[in-house]
Design a protein that fits this description.
Layout lengths: L1 E9 L4 H14 L3 E8 L7 E9 L13 E4 L2 H7 L9 E4 L11 E4 L1 H7 L6 H13 L4 H11 L2 H18 L5 H5 L4
Parallel strand pairs: 1-4, 4-5, 5-6
Antiparallel strand pairs: 1-3, 2-3
C-alpha cells in the first residue's frame, strides 16, 4: 500500500496536528511514514499545508507527487487543489466554509457546522480526519483512537474521540454523500 495525502486549510485549524496523528497511527500499524508541513506567510490564518505518505515499504521520495486524496477545509485550499478532482483524486472539503463543488470526486461535508453544533469548532480537524481516514481506508480507527488517547486526556480526549467516531461515520464508504450531508448536527 502506498498512499499520499494532502491536508490543507487555514493556519490554526489543526491540520498539522491531524497529519501528525495520521502519521503516528500509520506507524503504530507498522507502516513507513513521511509527514511534512508548510505554512503561508502568517501561521494563523494563512494557508496551512500538511502532507502524509504512508507505505508498506521504504519511502524514497519524501514529497507528495500525486495525492490519493486531498482534504481542504477552506475556500482558498480547495481552489488550490480542486484540479486534482479532474484527475480522479477524491477531494474532501468543508461545505461550511467552501463553495459547493460538483462532480464524482468532490465530497463536501459540513465539518465546521457539525463541530460547532457539538460545541467545539476547535475539533473540526479531528472530525474531518476521521471522515477522510474512513473513506480512504488510510488507517484503522483503533490506531487513531490510541493516538488521541495518548495526546489528549480528560474531557478534551473524550470530545476528540467523539469527533473521530462521528467523522468515521461520515466517511464510511457504504454511506452516500447525500446521506452524509444530512448527518446529525
Amino acid at each position: 500500500m502506498h498512499r499520499e495525502v494532502i491536508l490543507a486549510g487555514s493556519g490554526g485549524q489543526g491540520l498539522v496536528l491531524s497529519a501528525i496523528l495520521l502519521a503516528e497511527a500509520a506507524m503504530r500499524e507498522g507502516k513507513s511514514v513521511v509527514q511534512t508541513q508548510s505554512y503561508g506567510i502568517a501561521s494563523r490564518g494563512g494557508l496551512s499545508l500538511a502532507e502524509v505518505i504512508i507505505d508498506d515499504a521504504e519511502i524514497i521520495f519524501q514529497q507528495v507527487r500525486r495525492p490519493d486524496c486531498v482534504l481542504a477545509l477552506t475556500e482558498e485550499a480547495i481552489k488550490k487543489f480542486e484540479a486534482w478532482a479532474g484527475k480522479g483524486v477524491p477531494v474532501y472539503y468543508d461545505s461550511t466554509l467552501a463553495t459547493a463543488r460538483h462532480g464524482p470526486n468532490f465530497h463536501g461535508h459540513p465539518f465546521t457546522q457539525i463541530a460547532s453544533d457539538l460545541g467545539n469548532v476547535g475539533s473540526v480537524n479531528i472530525l474531518a480526519l476521521g471522515a477522510l481516514a474512513a473513506h480512504m481506508n488510510l488507517v484503522k480507527r483503533t490506531s487513531l483512537e490510541q493516538q488521541l488517547r495518548q495526546r489528549f486526556a480528560g474531557a478534551a480526549g473524550e470530545l476528540n474521540l467523539k469527533m473521530l467516531a462521528l467523522g468515521f461515520d461520515l466517511g464510511a464508504p457504504a454511506r452516500s454523500d447525500a446521506a452524509a450531508a444530512g448527518a446529525p448536527k
